[in-house]
Amino acid sequence: MTIQDAAREATNDILTEGSHRPMLEAEPLPKRGNFAPQYHGFPIIDPPFELPRDNWSWRDDGWMFDDDEQRELVATRIDEFVERMFPVWLSAGGFWKTGVYSLGWLEDNKDYWGKRDLAISKRGLTILDINKVVDAGRPVPAVSERVGESIRGAPLTQPMMRTIRRPLINQRIHAWADSAPPLYEEAVDRQWSATRDIPWAQLQADTNKLPYSINRASAMLASMLGQLEIDAGLGACSVLPFISHEYQETIWFHLTQGMDEARHAEVFKKRAVMAGGIAGTFTNTDFAAFLVLNSQSMEWLNFFLQGVGEGAILSLFRMGEYIAPTEGDKEIYRRCMQDEARHVSFGQMRLRAFMQGVEDKERAQSEIQVIARATDAFFLQFFTDPDIVEPIAVLAGGGVEKIDDGIAWVRSFYQVVRDDYLNRCDSMGVDGWRAKTLLPPVAPF
Amino acid sequence: MGRGPELPTREHTNPHLGLFAAIAALYSHPYRINFTAGGSGADHGRGGTVALYIDVDVCIGCGACEYGCPTGAIGKTDTQLGVFVIETHKCNDCGVCPTVCPVDCIFQEPESIICHERGCPVAPTARGGYAGWQCSELTNFCDQCGNVLWSAPGSDEWVCVRCDLGQPQRWCPKVASLAKGRTGQRLPKGQPVVYRLEPVAEPGDPDVLVGSVPRRNT
Question: Which of B18, B47, B29, B16 lies closest to B83 in space, CA to CA?
Answer without folding.
Answer: B29
